[in-house]
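Posting for a labmate who doesn't have an account.
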Amino acid sequence: MKKKLISLSFIVLIVFAQSTFAFGTNENKYQYDNTAHVENHIIPLWTNTSTAYSSLESNGNIITAYANIRPKNNTMHVTGAMYLQQYNSGRWVNKAKWPFNKNGNVFLSTTYSAYSGGKYRVKIEATVNKEVISLISNEKYVKL
């Protein structure tokens, strides 16, 4: 009886130790994860940039492209361009380009009249204090 009690205690101890180790491992799983998870998107964490995103809306043949780049310090230099791209023959082709070059926050909101239907997206290529940022928006299908 004493052996059964010791054996049972040992088994319970091992099970408890393994479950504690497993939970401890899961808790630290994201300790070195260098991304923030927002709305089912993975957004990289940058050194010089606090926020950067691009998006696209369409209403009929009018496409509105948005870009927002916010450095961590308003004195930081931001340079680059926002591109409207259309998917054509298996590749993305630039249809329009809007460059920017300034210190501090960059917010762009521009419209484009599409003359052909298809898939469109916005691409951002920027540098914030020598830190390279590349973003691609959601895709929108424009039907004319």
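Reply:
Got it, the structure tokens are right above this. The chain has one helix and ten strands.
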